[in-house]
Amino acid sequence: MKYLFVKLRRDMTKMWTQFFCVFMMALLSVMIYSGMEGVWHGLNEVTEKYYKETNLADAWVYGKGITEDMLDDIKNIDGVKDASLSMDLTVNLEDDKDSPDVKLMTLENENLMKPKNMGGEDYDVNSKGIWLDKTFANERNIKVGDKITLNYGQAKKEFEVKGLILDSEFIYYTGSITETIPNNSLHGYGVINEEEAKDFYKTLVYNEMRISTENNADMDKIQSEVEDILGDSYYSFSVRDDISAVSQITKESQQMQNMAQLFSFVFILLALLTMYTTMSRLVNNQIGIIGTMKALGITNNQIRLHYAMYGFLIALVGGFCGSILGKMVVSKAVMKVKKTTLILPEWRVSLSSVTYMIILGIALICTLAAIIAANKCLKGMPAQIMRGNIPKKIKVKENGKSFTDKFPFEWRWIFRDISRNKVRFVMGVIGVAGSMMLMMAGLGIKNSINYSNEYVYSTEYSYKYKAVLSNNDQAVVDEIENDLDKYQLVSEKSLELYNDDIKKTGVITVLDKGDYVHFENMNGEKINLPKEGAVISHKIADTLGVSTGDEIDIRVAGINETLKVKIKEITKTPTPQGLYMSKEAWEDLNQDFLVTSVLIGSKDDYNTLDDKEYIKEITSINKQIENMDKMAKSVMTVIALLIVASVLLSSVILYNLGMLNFVERSREYATMKVMGFKQKEIRSLSLRDCLITTSLGWIIGIPIGFAFLNAYINTVSFNTFEWIATLYPVSFIIVSVVVIVCSLLVSLFISYKVKNINMVEVLKSVE
Fold first, then answer.
1. pLDDT value, residue 200
2. What distance in Å separates the CA atoms of residue 364 and residue 28, rounded to the nearest whole number?
3. Sorting pLDDT into bands at 50, 70 and 90, what band is 391?
4. How far is CA 361 from CA 319, 353, 722, in A?
5. Strand partners, 120
6. In the 3-class helix/strand/coil scheme, how is 212-248 assigned residue by residue?
7. Taking Cα atoms as reference points, which of 323, 328, 267, 259 lies closest to residue 646?
């Protein structure tokens, strides 16, 4: 066996390019998956631990004037383990530069919210002072022991900062409906005890309840009973998935998982197919040597083991190197961006057993390919095996003519070669088509994100500023209408949509007269909000399984009844996902139009509202675009890695297939040179062969590339934001050029190898 190991070492040295290609395909395949899995699996582990440490609730109830008696009744609901009350209000931090807000909460106990200490004293329900959001405090340069002043209307109170905290309810805390990403310098949170709250507000009115439930509890049933108990005090009911500050990390983790799994599945499948073919062809090309080894008395099992090491060692080493590089390069790059929006007490890169199963699977498949090829070569007597592979006879018509007879010699040679080596030709086509598909998906998802963001803030919205109201009394609305020139009144509320047993959460947007929000149907045709019924976003409609003309039930936050709404149109609006109604249609349901925000179209109107007391905040559309770009950056980092990996894998696959073709055709090329074929004639044959393979693969790759892009977009889109599948013409041209150039360069490299081929050695080696 030691001589077989010597042969193995020499073979790897002699055919290092083919082995290196297998190594690179295994490395790239595992690197992308393991790098992204390291982030999402690490996030899942950290958040699960974080949830337990902070006693995260399962559901939140919002209302007005919730009493202790109501709390006791809710605790007795079947499926409820515990519940606690809190008074949560947004207050302002007194500051010379700006007026940042703080979500200030009271805790009667730590059963369902136990802030994690990040500095100073542990939270104590019996201690005075405030425990402040660590990230907010760092941004404002506030330290433990400092005294800060908080304002709520006319009320003002000074608090000593007793400790810095983080809590799992605020992993992704934006603090404002106008913000799409966290702004930790302007929005924070804090905790005080009930005694401090009474001193600050002069009263204590509970408006929030946290609930923990049994495993597999019926949340819909619990919500229904909570509504009955609270009656007029009920406002809304939310579970973890409904609260973006809690669920965003889960959504981003799931998105990364979907992106990695779907992309890596195709990535690994294409690599495996190529590796399987590579190992088979490498072994087949040694059939003469196999016959010699068998004649020398080496057993079949020893020969099988020898060639099994071909696939096992290279694929295994490549896979493990890929997992290491994935953690060192991909995971760190993705995590660096995630840290800008997600606030966690710790970060961890962690791989699950799936990565190692993939590595082992790749190694076993490559090993299996080598063993199967070796088995085929071991059939028969040594003398028969040493003769080598005899080309299959080509079937011709009885009259001796073929459809290729009218073609020039070069094309007849190519067609004859294809008919003799169908597997080689098919693998070449699959390699080109797979490369097209991967790169179209990589660039396509980047285009889709850019197009969708641009669509929202250039086609869907045309306002310049958005003002959020803190007071929507009719007197305030009258004042706005008297003072402003170019504006549109908007009412936005959280929403639950029902169709049979399917439930979805979203946003209902009710619009008054104005022209700052625009809608298009799925064909890109402009639609107007109807005076009866509603327009529904495409993703919500698809999830609910509804179409135009159907009726659905909705529950709107703050309204204690179920409304029935008819769907008039479906819009491709990416965000927000939910329903859109005109003021007339909303009032037709016997509901009051309560203004929550104002869309402003001019700088003068912005200046008019800027200092009004009833304005909570004003943001510009440019700021929203900037926030959206920052949010997309985390996804773009992953996409950039996928694009680079796609190009590398495609190049390796095309190069590997080309080199294998050269090795298998080396005898033919040498024979042609002996017969007097000129170098340019052989190059012409190589280029024509490349043209057929590349053209067919390119044509097949286009439809499957678009199909894969659409499936990919549907898989990785957020529930609250639907990306529109898009591939810009310039991106398609780039993909086509990369694939064609790679194929062409491989063909030219082969012709260069042919030029330097040693005809005598090649012909002797196959005798």
1. 92
2. 17
3. very low
4. 10, 12, 35
5. 163
6. EECCCCCHHHHHHHHHHHHHHHEEEEEEHHHCHHHHH
7. 267
